[in-house]
Design brief:
- Keywords: Hydrolase, Magnesium, Metal-binding, Phosphoprotein, Signal, Zinc.
- Its cofactor is Mg(2+); Zn(2+).
- By secondary structure, the chain is α/β, with parallel strands linked by helices.
- The chain folds into two domains: 334 residues, Alkaline Phosphatase, subunit A (3-Layer(aba) Sandwich); 67 residues, Diphtheria Toxin Repressor, domain 2.
- The chain has a ten-stranded mixed beta sheet, with helices on both faces. A three-stranded antiparallel beta sheet has the order 5-4-17.
- Bound molecules: zinc ion.
Length: 480
């Protein structure tokens, strides 16, 4: 109840801000009436890649206090406003990939699976980030994948294929809005794509005045209000279970906001990129750990919006992944408590078990719960197998313990939840389409004053990479 009242207060606060703005300006370039909402000052779009509805339910059960009779609500529950369809352009059927979905969320246009910021005719389309920059907002992104991965790429770049990481990295520098770079702040992984033999895009950004951070601590020392590129891994960040920071997305989000805050407002894209990767891998332990990092991020953003009620936060997924089910194989049971004490990801356990003299004991210690002698013997045998088989064995063991089910190693076509809070949140209520999210954000940005006249976005396609260097996303969703 308290939380619901708080949300009303956000909206009331935003209305007051809008009214104050109207009464104090007679010659404003924006035509407003006294009761018209002028749009949020700051817009934060959060994409939880792969987070279908089963993930949010599973997360609620995962953090449930089993000593009480009820399942306690979690941060997402109070913020739910509706549901979005995710289907791509007709040419790609009913099940979207992250590129088409990100293009829809970023530009409001449905495209084919694989498209990065281009329409079905492979023509470049404008994103809400381009438009925010055109309107004088500061802009940024904070993600846990490489920053050239499908979701962040679709807000900046234009490429016929998500696989062309090098060309997409070039676009981060080459695509300009009114002569300016699209993003002022870029945080995530991906030095491999920015420091290349054929082109050092990172050096170009540094020459152009960007601060560079290659570690979380160094990021904290960048002076507030800087333009910054922070790349913390050659490709993606580690699984959160293996990361030195267990709140890495929350941390990157805070740091991005610190750099972006200014009088004219900002647009920030945040992505919990690896919920999707856990889904592709059918790895329930990492799925829940990545969800927890997201939940911490949303807790922080709730606190931020209560201090800054002129900020809008929208959270949704691009699609669901893996066909996750809570309970499986005809058994009416789900037991997430087996996931509470993991000391490393299943992926790391699969690597490390091979070098252990007592593999069963190592797995028992790393999982954090007692194994039977038979189970320990099983892992002694598993340790002699190939790494991919070891990984599968550890994940299957946790699936059996928790009774988790999966139907796919790819995406599924179900609708996804939409969560929103802060100024203008109610524009996202009900059953909507993923393209509606971009359309609403465009309309909010559109309400802002035009800061200079005759602005044209200079959007051009860059040529594709050499096809020999591309990656098969069916085989490897991380595509390194
Ligand atoms: Zn995916």
């Amino acid at each position: 109840m308290i939380k619901r009242n708080l949300r009303s207060a956000f909206v009331a606060g935003a209305t007051l801000v809008a009214l104050a703005a109207c009464s104090s300006t007679d010659t404003d370039t924006v035509s407003t009436t006294k009761n018209e909402f002028n749009g949020p000052k700051n817009i934060i779009m959060v994409v939880a890649d792969g987070m279908g509805p089963a993930y949010t339910t599973a997360y609620r059960n995962y953090v449930d206090d089993s000593k009480t009779a009820i399942v306690e609500t979690v941060v997402f529950d109070d913020l739910l406003v509706g549901n979005a369809s995710t289907y791509p352009a007709q040419v790609s059927g009913y099940v979207t990939d992250s590129a088409a979905a990100a293009t829809a969320l970023a530009t409001g246009i449905k495209s084919y699976n694989g498209a990065i910021g281009v329409d079905v005719d492979k023509q470049p389309v404008q994103s809400v980030m381009h438009y925010a920059k055109q309107k004088g907002m500061r802009t940024g992104l904070a993600v846990t994948s490489q920053i050239v991965h499908a979701t962040p790429a679709s807000y900046i770049a234009h490429n016929e294929s998500r696989k062309n990481y090098n060309a997409i990295a070039d676009d981060f520098y080459d695509v300009r809005v009114n002569g300016e770079f699209v993003a002022d702040v870029m945080l995530g992984g991906g030095t491999r794509y920015f420091e290349r033999e054929d082109r050092d895009v990172l050096a170009q950004f540094i020459d152009a005045g960007y601060a560079y951070a290659d570690s979380y601590n160094r990021l904290a020392s960048v002076p507030t209000g800087s333009n910054v590129i922070g790349l913390f891994a050659p490709v993606a960040l580690p699984w959160v279970l293996d990361d030195s920071r267990k709140n890495r997305l929350e941390y990157l989000t805070k740091q991005a906001i610190r750099q972006l805050e200014n009088d004219k407002g900002f647009f920030l894209l945040v992505e919990a990129s690896q919920v999707d990767w856990a889904g592709h891998a059918n790895d329930i332990a990492s799925a829940m750990a990545e969800m927890h990092d997201l939940a911490l991020t949303i807790e922080y953003l709730k606190a931020y919006v209560s201090e800054n009620p002129d900020t809008l936060v929208v959270l949704t997924a691009d699609h669901s992944t893996g066909g996750l089910t809570i309970g499986a194989r005809g058994d009416y049971r789900w037991t997430p408590s087996f996931l509470h004490k993991l000391d490393a990801s299943a992926s790391t356990m699969a690597k490390d078990i091979a070098g252990e003299s007592l593999p069963g004991a190592y797995i028992e210690k790393t999982l954090g719960f007692a194994l039977t002698d038979e189970e320990k013997k099983h892992f002694d045998d598993v340790a002699k197998q190939e790494e991919s088989e070891r990984y599968t064995a550890i994940k299957s063991f946790l699936d059996d313990k928790t009774n988790t089910g999966w139907t796919s190693t790819g995406h599924t076509g179900v609708d996804v939840e939409v969560f929103a809070f802060g100024a203008g949140y109610n524009a996202f209520m009900g059953q909507i389409d993923n393209t509606d999210i971009a359309k609403k954000i465009f309309s909010f940005i559109d309400k802002r004053p035009v800061l200079s006249s005759g602005i044209q976005t200079n959007i051009e396609m860059t040529p594709s990479d050499d096809k020999s260097d591309t990656c098969n996303f069916k085989e490897d969703w991380r595509c390194q």
